[in-house]
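Folding follows sequence. Below is one example:
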Amino acid sequence: MPRVLMPIGDATEVLDTMYPYFRLPEDGFEVDVAGPEARLYHMVLHEIPPDSSIPWDITQERPGYHLRATIAFHDVDPTRYAGLFVSGGRAPEYLRYNQDLLRITRHFFEANKPVAVVCHGVEIVTAADCIRGRTMTTVAKCKMDVLQGGAKYVDQAVVVDGNLVSARTWHDNTLLLKHFIALLKAQTKPA
């Protein structure tokens, strides 16, 4: 069964992560979760509260579920994977400094394998210098990351640019996975 690598860390967004974690196997792709260490990670819910008595201008963060990374970044052989799924939340803020994760990320772009990026996941692909000259979307507050990475930002649900599929937030998960799975299937079909 073809495998997809999913990097996570503490404060990875629950819906950015769990939807593809369960959705990809439905189409025959096994998901391997990787982290800075092989251990249990704390996920978070990121949302601007819809009915707050005092309005929030930024995302409120609340504790979510937990997910175990079964492999550490330094042990990942990216050649074993058909694709990469980079979720958001606050985790990418610190994961983008992990040199092993940046090496892994670059492999998928250099090998032209499918890569899906949602929300703050853009911070990782930008740090890996993989989006220069591309067009992509992300949550509006990460527009600067797209521009600083040398890419063109567009505000739409999903953008497909070659092997890269990007989405704004978990609200766009259905379209994101539809396009990502199509790329994975095209890449992994028998010759």
Observations:
- Residues 13 and 89 are 4 Å apart (CA to CA).
